[in-house]
Amino acid sequence: MTVITNIEDLKRIYRRRAPKMFYDYCESGSWSEQTFRENVTDFEKIRLRQRVAVDMTGRSTATQMVGQDVAMPVALAPVGLLGMQHADGEILAARAAEAFGVPFTLSTMSICSIEDVAERTQKPFWFQLYTMTDEDYVRRLLQRAKDAKCSALVITLDLQIIGQRHKDLKNGLSAPPKPTLKNWLDLSLRWRWGLNMLQTPRRHFGNIVGHAQGVDDPSSLFEWTAKQFDPALDWKKVAKLIEMWDGPTILKGILDEEDARMAAEVGADAIVVSNHGGRQLDGALSAIRMLPRIVDAVGDRIEIHMDGGIRSGQDVLKAVALGAKGTYVGRAFVYGLGAMGQQGVESALEVIRKELDTSMALCGRRRIEDLGRDVLLVPEDFEGRWQDV
Ligand SMILES: Cc1cc2nc3c(=O)[nH]c(=O)nc-3n(C[C@H](O)[C@H](O)[C@H](O)COP(=O)(O)O)c2cc1C
Description:
Glyoxylate binds at residues 25, 165, 276, 279. Keywords: Flavoprotein, FMN, Oxidoreductase. The protein has helices spanning 7-17, 20-26, 34-45, 82-85, 89-100, 114-119, 135-147, 166-171, 181-188, 191-198, 221-228, 235-245, 257-265, 287-298, 313-321, 331-362; strands at 47-48, 63-65, 68-70, 74-76, 105-106, 126-130, 152-156, 249-254, 270-273, 303-307, 326-329, 376-377. The protein is an alpha/beta fold. It has a single domain (7-365), classed as Aldolase class I (TIM Barrel, Alpha-Beta Barrel). It has an 8-stranded parallel beta sheet with strand order 4-11-10-9-8-7-6-5. Helix 13 links the parallel strand 8 (249-254) and strand 9. The longest helix is centred in the C-terminal third of the chain and has 32 residues, at 331-362. The radius of gyration is 20 Å and the shape is globular. The model has no long low-confidence stretch (mean pLDDT 95). Bound molecules: flavin mononucleotide. Flavin mononucleotide binds next to helix 2 and helix 16.
């Protein structure tokens, strides 16, 4: 049995066990993948200040995100198609988050439906909304999330149209995979995945099939969603959605100070500084690089979260020290899920928690609230000197 000590360990097992099509779907960014790569490498540029002879007893990583208690400032990011990474993936990931005491965010594009996840978990989870042109469908989706007692709404703003990821096109990504020779050959190597998948009825987009108009053929869903995502989304519509939800709302995909100001004005409770894990606008700056500027611009007006590139507890520490009240992990928990289901997600969270706790101690801090920019060594040119626009 492999001893899991870091997220890379989980990634290696995940790569062996998950169908190539879904591994590639997770492990890619748009176009040249520059932003995808820099989300990770920019974290490495920040260093930590080692402090000694500080009482380290009674440490805690517990804090709050949008007023809700969390065991550490880390939520599971909304990730589509989890149920293809591992059978019943959304339910397993939600259970892992619940056991750990961190929020799970269910994507609109999940395989297990909102109701499925709610029935098979004890605590409320968060729901992520992609806005669609079919307003009636959106209204019903929000009502379903309310009925399922979702405790926060995450509205994703950076995917009105989809960024091109070469591998998905080349692999003919679909859920479930189409019965082609290439797919059969690949699936024959992933018997564990196949056996689990045979035992679940959940193989289509659970929030959509049977709920949205004009979707009779689930395999045409990618086409349907591409047509359905609302290219006309604007701040007025965002304001309307916030009003409609009437509960904690988080706007995800903010990467610019001006947009952050708009988000604060429109009445959201929090924003996620994010570039969708480098999957949308390739060439955008990494999320960790944009974070300090956005904190300076609106940090006193709205709660700030961030995601993109977090692969360790030290990354979480750096983001929090730069002003994020919370962070999200995407790929880091998908690796765990694809490797070992619920146990793998718990393992990913434990790796992150342990590293966060130990790093805090070695920086001489005992509580999340004590983390500030003074625990970091940030290169002078970290934010970059870009000409004013
Ligand atoms: C495979 C995959 C699917 C994703 N699906 C969604 C989604 O359905 N909704 C959404 O808002 N973000 C989605 N994201 C973006 C994540 O929520 C998050 O912003 C990103 O993964 C953070 O970067 P990281 O993977 O480096 O942690 C997805 C990301 C990945 C890797």
